[in-house]
Amino acid sequence: MSYGYTLNLVSLNKSASARSIGVKLGRTCIKHGVPVADVAERLGVSRQTIYHWFSGKSRPSEQMASKIEKLITQLER
Q: Mean pLDDT across the stretch 49-58?
């Protein structure tokens, strides 16, 4: 299991729509073992917000989506 990710969060992320940039971020972070706390700090939001994005319970704003796209690009390198 990736660092810091519960089976429940991984399951919620897998079943959520990949059309959401938050879910896409979650899949990238889980794949690369990037801790939720690190993602939250880098984006300036709470860990709870990150969990909600990863699980598809909520979506980031358009402004935040741009930051997330950049972060995903960095993580995929």
A: 96
